[in-house]
Amino acid sequence: MKKRVGLLLAIMTAFVMLVMPLGNTTHAQAADNSLEKIQKKGVLVMGTSPDYPPYEFQATVNGKSTVVGMDVQIGKKVAKDLGVKLKIKSMSFDSLLVALQTGKVDMIISGMNPTPARRKNVSFTHTYYQGGYDIVINKTDKAKYKNKDSFGGGTLGAQTGTTQYNAAKSQTKNTTVKGMTSQSDLILALQSHKLDGVAMEKPSAEAYVSNNKQLAAIPSDFNMSSSATSSAIAFRKGSTSLVNKVNKTVDQIKKENLVKKDYLPAAGKYLKTNTVNTSMTHYWKAFLTGIEYTLIITVCSVFFGFIIGIILALARMARGNFFKNLLRWVATAYVEFIRGTPMMVQVMFVYFGLGLFVNLPALTSGIIAISLNSGAYVAEYIRGGINSVDVGQTEAARSLGMSNGKTMRYVILPQALKNIWPSLGNEFITLIKDSSIVSIIGVTELIYQSNIVRSDTYRGVAPIVVIMVLYFILTFTASRILNYFERKMQHA
Fold first, then answer.
1. Which Gene3D superfamilies match (predicted)?
2. pLDDT in the model for residue 16
3. Exposed, middle or buried by CB within 10 Å (0-12, 13-18, 19+), for 370?
4. Could you tell me which CATH class the domain 7-129+228-276 is placed in?
């Protein structure tokens, strides 16, 4: 099944649990009103990672990219039985548990295993599906590989942190096991012969094989426990009344065999529809949306990052009384901390950590996080630019009776800006590419949209080539514009 929460998210979860008021937890356990809250709100937010056909994946429906699959059908059934509307929120699988614990989503239906480790942090319903595992291979190797024991001396791939990844590591001999975060990346590696096989769940294996004539599936013969091959719906810990209510829906789904009778066949139809037209021009709207969000994130982050950078640079250069020294110390600590932590962690902290107190949309969270990150780097550029201005400029301005503020504003900063313009341009170009990080929280920028297209078409290379070209066009155009203004400033 899908990958477990990685070390990074484990740290985030630990932080979240630490900052949560203990009184609220105690109250939730004493008086569970989870069912009442959902029914009163009238909306049930389902978190999912739509990259796992036929459980959940993207398909083009009436010209619009939509999340479909058997898990979506289950979500609709649950919402209908609760008498509320269903809202689907897409994000990476690794982010789902944190999103549930911080209230970003109300439930998770994403082919998730109800493992003992996960049960410590969330509440699961009864299982709604019992699966198994296959190994996907290139059809030309069908005579060579029969099961997991056939890969001696070869390379077997699986999603990092998943039960099949762990099984491949522990239950194969003389086999190199390679983990990747995306199933589509694994299939791409398989077809480019960087892997000999990919271990995945049976329905997903069947989905890829049925839509790609170059692939075949063989039994894995992994020795797996029932919890490692089953799927259940996850809710926040202590949501007893809500879980009990949803269990009735799950029991009905199993009793009427709706998964195999209705939900899987419906998902199969969407899978076939996806492969009718897999040309990249067919998905121009998806790429255009990605460009739009990438530019929104970049422009806003550059604007706010520049303002933050100026404030931090001036604060770092403050000298004098206790207040100014304290301001300098705080600014220095901020710059060093931001530059010393990955942007991905910062994005997740803003979205999930601050989300405990303010329910920020994913796009807003991404802009805030990237602006805060950019501000730390811009501050150093500006500080270096200010220091590069000859001290005689300051002395001349002061001799004319200009105040410190006016000297900085009208004399020093304009010259500093001219000196650091290439560095600021570099930062702008970098932000265009770094905006891809916000895809982890479900912002529909270029990387996110390319993953949608890959999920839709089962084509691994073509969408990558398209976004490479698009990123180059964006960065090349931006470079030419910045160079134009640089030349104008040099001649000013």
1. MetI-like, Periplasmic binding protein-like II
2. 46
3. buried
4. alpha beta
What is the per-residue pLDDT for 274?
A: 64
| CATH superfamily entry for domain 282-491 | MetI-like (1.10.3720.10)
List the chain residues with pLDDT less than 50.
Answer: 1-11, 13-30
pLDDT confidence of residue 23: 40
Measured CA to CA, the distance from residue 421 to residue 419 in angstroms comes to: 6
Tokens standing for 164? 């099949």
Question: Beta-carbon neighbour count of residue 487 at 10 Å?
Answer: 10
Asked whether the domain spanning 133-223 has the same topology as the one spanning 7-129+228-276, the reply is: yes
| 265: number of Cβ within 10 Å | 12
- pLDDT confidence of residue 126: 95
pTM of the model: 0.72
- The pLDDT of residue 461 is 78
Strand order in the sheet with 155-159: 176-180, 155-159, 197-201, 133-138, 215-219
Q: Which pLDDT score is estimated for 30?
A: 43
CA–CA separation, 186 and 182 (whole Å)? 7
Answer whether CATH 3.30.70.260 is correct for domain 133-223: no
- Each domain of the chain, given as residue ranges in start order, spans 7-129+228-276, 133-223, 282-491
Q: Which residues, in sequence order, are bridge partners of residue 492?
A: none
**pLDDT of amino acid 268:** 79
Q: What is the C-alpha to C-alpha distance for residues 335 and 339, in angstroms, rounded to an integer?
A: 6
What is the per-residue pLDDT for 31?
Answer: 58
